[in-house]
Write a structure and sequence with these properties.
242 residues; mainly alpha; two-stranded antiparallel sheet
Length: 242
């Protein structure tokens, strides 16, 4: 009788993990995280580099269209061919002037018409682009916004600065100023502009990556470059011609 009673009782399976099993699962998850996190971070950096190169390509195309229309490239520098996209004194609001934007867009950042004097060094946008032609369509992703400053992505940058995909505002642009088809020492008086590494303070110049000899150089009408996060040497620069 006792045997029957014992056999009639339902079997209760043990549920849940043992401590050893739980520790094993945690260890596996830790290993997977150590593998995936750097991969995801690397993919994000690669994507931003690709976006920045796309920006450079669009801007370079606009420069070439500008030259086709006016016979020369846009000018930004007050001290010769050497220049940065965001020179000192760039306007801090979307209603202000930004020579790089205004020349290529044919309007102010707020959509208002180009106006003002026709003289200066460099010449203002209305003097260089008198037909007010739009050579490129900028988006908010091309500029530092108030939300970027609030979020800490651009703590030291002024509003209205042009930025790359890394929120970096230190971007160099050099044009073939003498229109000989090559950018070299003739077009880079004072050397190549240094750019600040995104997220840091170090400055890098492409002094040996490109040929600065009079007979050498880069066969292009305009070049752009910037320094992504973690850049250490000039070979780490994002360069429009490479």
């Amino acid at each position: 009788m006792s045997l029957l009673r014992r056999s009639s009782q339902p079997f209760r399976a043990t549920l849940g993990f043992t401590l050893i099993e739980l520790l094993a699962v945690i260890a596996v998850l830790g290993i997977l995280a150590s593998i995936l996190i750097p991969t995801i971070g690397g993919a994000r950096v690669a994507a931003n580099k690709a976006k920045t190169r796309t920006q450079f390509s669009q801007w370079a195309t606009a420069f070439e269209a500008f030259k086709q229309e006016y016979g020369n490239y846009p000018q930004f520098a007050t001290n010769g061919p050497q220049k940065l996209v965001n020179p000192p004194g760039t306007a801090t609001q979307t209603t202000g002037n930004h020579l790089f934007h205004d020349l290529l867009a044919g309007t102010r950042r707020d959509g208002s018409a180009l106006t003002g004097a026709l003289t200066g060094n460099p010449l203002p946008a209305i003097a260089q682009n008198p037909r007010r032609i739009r050579f490129v369509s900028f988006t908010d992703a091309d500029f530092v916004l108030a939300a970027d400053v609030t979020a800490g992505r651009n703590t030291n940058a002024q509003l209205n600065y042009v930025r790359d995909a890394f929120n970096n505002t230190s971007i160099a642009v050099i044009t073939d100023s003498n229109l000989d088809g090559v950018i070299n020492a003739r077009d880079t008086a004072g050397g190549y502009p240094g750019v600040v590494v995104s997220g840091g303070t170090a400055t890098i110049r492409p002094t040996t990556v490109v040929t600065t000899a009079q007979t050498g150089g880069i066969h292009a009408g305009v070049i752009f470059y910037c320094a992504p996060p973690g850049a250490v040497t000039e070979n780490d620069l994002i360069m429009s011609w490479k």
